[in-house]
Amino acid sequence: MKYIILITTLFTSLFSYSQKLENSLLWKISGNGLKADSYLYGTIHITCDASLDENTIKALDKTQQLYLELDMDDKSMQMQMMKYMMMKDGTKLSTLLNEDDFRAVDDFLKKHMSMSAKMFDGFKPFIVSTMLYPKMIDCSFQSVESELMRVTKEQNEEIYGLETVEDQMNVFDTISYEIQAQELVKMAKSDLEKDKAELAKMMEVYKNKDIEGMLEMLDDSENKITSENQDVLLNNRNQNWIPLMVKTMKEKPTFFGVGAAHLAGEKGVIKLLRKQGFKVEAVK
User: Fold this and answer.
1) CB neighbours (10 Å) of residue 195?
2) Which Pfam families match (predicted)?
3) Distance of CA 256 to CAs 56, 60, 116, 124, 152, Å?
4) Rounded to the nearest 10 degrees, how much is the dihedral formed by the CA atoms of 224, 264, 63, 34?
5) Measured CA distances, 262 to 40, 211, 254 (Å)
């Protein structure tokens, strides 16, 4: 169930604040009083190949702890998540949708999950959508976060989170339930075809390490959850992470792994760290 909490999205800048960022997922953070380098890595939450390259393995070896968006090593994480899966104020999917659309979602979920939409009537619609992510790829579900955790555990190092489950799940109380419900209807009526195509394109852009291209995909997406809510999905969270990242790096060299969507852009993690006085450079 861990993939339910994961959300993907991305951003831009390198030689100067107005220039484009290089195509890179791994970035070295140095300067501004740091005693040792830390590293920032852009992940993808669902992929067919989560293998890490040599530079990334070396960066993990040089650092002393791993920070992901969430502490995914926390045994209580799934129980915490369950507390925040429901819509507030007793809102129901069956009341957000007309009868025909609810029937379309019901048939869709019966086909792909062997469960009725009635079982998820009070769930945040986006949460239901994430349950279908593994159906969007023609391969075994893999997660870059899981691979980062595997290496970190082999090194007998600790894993932490930049935010709590509550922080992340509350994002989907900020985004209109109506929009979430309509996006679920679109998914059902296309029978995942549009979603499969978009995810395949995103995985290809990620493979090319093109973080700016990822941002363009979000801006152009027909999915209103991502295209119209980048402040709550990305920008606000990025800003909230910076004080903890700065504090953590000053204490010990740290490897940060966050969704690649968070790296670029004027309000992305790379530029925010540079504005704090750190040198952030692509590792080739």
Assistant:
1) 19
2) TraB_PrgY_gumN
3) 11, 10, 39, 29, 12
4) -130
5) 10, 9, 17
CA 218/CA 24 separation, integer angstroms: 18
The Cα–Cα gap between 37 and 85 comes to: 38
First to last CA, the chain: 34
Which residue blocks in 138-232 are alpha helix, DSSP H? 144-154, 165-174, 177-189, 193-207, 211-220, 224-227, 230
* Rounded Cα gap, residues 260 and 11, in angstroms: 8
Cα gap 154→173, rounded to integer Å: 37
Residues lower than pLDDT 50 in the chain: 2-18
Chain Cα centroid distance, residue 184: 19
Q: What is the 3-state secondary structure (H, E, C) of 71-139?
A: CCCCCCHHHHHHCCCECHHHCCHHHHCCHHHHHHHHHHHHHHHCCCHHHHCCECHHHHHHCCHHHHCCC
Could you report the per-residue pLDDT of 165-199, keeping only the tens digit for each?
999 999 999 999 999 999 999 999 999 999 999 99
Residues 177 and 126: their CA atoms lie apart, in Å, by 8
Query: Are 51 and 147 a contacting pair, CB within 8 Å?
Result: yes
Structure tokens of 195?
A: 């979603």
Paired strand residues for 158 = 65
